[in-house]
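User: Run a structure prediction on this.
Assistant: Running it now.
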Amino acid sequence: MSVVFTRADERLGEFALRTLDPEADAALLHGWVTHPKAAFWLMQDADEAGVAEEYRRIAEHPHHDAYLGLWRGSPAFLAERYDPAHVELVGLYDAQPGDVGMHFLCAPTGAPVHGFTRAVITTVLAWLFADPATRRVVVEPDVRNTAVHALNAAVGFEVVGTVAKPEKDALLSVCTRAQFQAAVTTVEGAQA
């Protein structure tokens, strides 16, 4: 369970990503993925053993990884990285070299922090783009998840179109390194 990335947010402090341990983290993740606010995660009926099994499957997959996100040293979000040519979007879009798929989920909280979710997605994208091989980040949220569509647009994602997946109709969107950098620079300039 080693830390693979850290990012200091000017307003909210330190964010980090560490490798996920399917067994040790299952109870924590179970509470997150079955929470009503995580309905689009599609694990509402999972029990703790099912959550552990799903994240073991991801850990063993050659094209899919999961990470626990930390905020100020405490678990606060979940991030997944995948190769969309082999997972999630196989045959549903024109995969390009350097495409990396991403999912993220913020932990439920009774005391929301303004700007937290945006800081999380910014951290996840900064981590993905820290790899020079990453040319675009690809996401496929449910078409009904309007909150995440707005968030994706705010960090540079551009809608490609709708794709029909077995479990949902998804809004396929992509973000290049340049689009992300432009979005981050705009936000940092506005905060100055």
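The beta strands are 3-9, 13-19, 64-71, 74-82, 99-106, 136-139, 158-164, 169-176.
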